[in-house]
Amino acid sequence: MSLSPPPFSVVSARKLGLTFETNDGPVHALSNVDLEVRKGDFVSFIGPSGCGKTTFLRVIADLEKATAGEITVNGMTPEEARKSRSYGYVFQAPALYPWRTIEKNIALPLEIMGYSAAERRSRIERTLDLVNLSGFGKKYPWQLSGGMQQRASIARALAFDADLLLMDEPFGALDEIVRDHLNEQLLKLWARTEKTICFVTHSIPEAVYLSTKIVVMSPRPGRVTDVIESTLPAERPLEIRETPEFLEIAQRVREGLRAGHSYEEQ
Amino acid sequence: MKPDTLTQRILPVVTILLVIVAVWYVAAVFMNAPFQRDLDRRANIATSKPVDFIERTLSQPKPVLPAPHQVVSNVFENTFLRRVTSNRSLVYHAWVTLSSTVAGFTFGTVLGILIAVGIVHVKALDRSLMPWIIASQTVPILAIAPMVIVVLAAVNITGLIPKALISTYLSFFPVAVGMVKGLRSPELIQLDLMRTYHASAAQTFWKLRVPASIPFLFTSMKVAIAASLVGAIVGEMPTGAVAGIGRKLLDGSYYSQTIDLFAALIAASVLAAALVTIVGLAAKIVDRAMGGRPA
Fold first, then answer.
1. Which of A141, B83, B116, B287 is most exposed, with minimal Cβ within 10 Å?
2. Measured between alpha carbons, how far is B174 from B40 in angstroms, rounded to an integer?
3. Which CATH number fits domain B90-289: 1.10.3720.10, 3.40.50.1980, 1.20.120.1460, 1.25.40.10?
4. Using CB atoms, which residue from A95, A111, A142 is nearest to B193?
5. Which domain holds residue A143?
6. Mean pLDDT of A180-191
7. How far apart are CA A107 and CA A102, in angstroms?
8. In which band, very low, low, confident or very high, does the pLDDT at A1 lie, cut at 50, 70 and 90?
9. Where is the signal peptide (chain A) (predicted)?
10. Domain boundary residue among A119, A140, A161?
11. Residue B93, Cβ neighbours under 10 Å: how many?
12. Which residue out of A62, A99, A198 would a mutagenesis test of the B interface target, given it has the greatest number of B Cβ atoms within 10 Å?
């Protein structure tokens, strides 16, 4: 790839496209996506289903291959970035292995990447503390609530110190109360660890509350319709969601979605 | 014992058992009656009370259908009252059959796992091997068993190994099919997770596919061990094996020793139940160790 991304760029996409060949003809999951994610950004991707937000995340993670355009992750191709373990991925479901305890689940990537037993021990302690699950290490996944399971899966993604965290609707299956709480915790965690986070969601308040940058996407073909730089302060109590500034950003997100025909009957 | 165990579990089973025994007695009387009438006529017992007649039908030495108590006393006698080395001891014959069952089951399980690993990892094997494996089970074992035993005897392999091979033939199949399913059971999301870690194929195999397949392995092993026992018994029949439950069954039918025949059947079913139970217990212990949720 002959592309030189700007300094501090973590993800850089130029004219990125991805077309799935299906029996019903080609499906344009992504088309002409230009995007820059800087180091330390918290970027949310929002849009209706089929807008390609998850697909874009999977392209960054090298779980899908782009069919057009260029993309770099930490200045490398996504494949090189994956092979150098540059990111941690949090899926929609916790995807914990049911035969492993929580601490063994967190140890999984560490085992695969060849960390020593002592190093694993200390990293398990540290990440369990980061997600407020200290003392639950010996439990099996089924003994934990859905929210706790998803926190454990975040701990697993943090365990090996990748600077980039990719999160694909991690709280989508949880109820709103648990979700508010986890959003607050996630912001604290982001401030503490200084990671770069790419976060897929279909909740407007969640996107506005969490992000420094909101990428509004729309379907058929999947594309970016607006990129909003948040003007909210770094310190964000839950009450910030009642402020005019917050509502103004939410309004702009809604307009972006409308401009992409996301509200029309499909 | 939990209070509901008695009514919920034991009572229904015992009820059915009592029904079976009752039907069996009635059937025994009817099936043995013609021969008993014949005997009575020859012995000039002109008339007798029905109760006496029924009692005689249930105590013939070689009845068409032996009565349950005759079978039970035969099983008891040949299990507990004989030296285990005696040729008449059921324990001795069961031991002979058990050893080839276990040997065949072990080979079969290992073979089944190896085949499954091959099928899951090599696309060519998936296409080429699977149809043959399924075809192998459509050939009746009764047709193959004598061939295996005769061919191996021709090259001086006799005794345990030929019988164990027949058990292997029957038991590798459920294990292979179950393990293919088990090794492919991890969800896409779990496989994607391994990919994000840049895990090697070997790591994905040992840390994901193998643990995910364990419940499938035990389910198929339960089927396989019962099939192994059938294989061992069938293997004892065609060539006049000197010992084993198959031999007892054959003797029973050759010499009309119906009581012995039924006793051997009982021994075979007790053995099968015990083997399946042992595999089931092992499954439970392993499941608990792997964090299984208590039922």
1. B83
2. 53
3. 1.10.3720.10
4. A95
5. 94-161
6. 89
7. 9
8. very low
9. none
10. A161
11. 26
12. A99
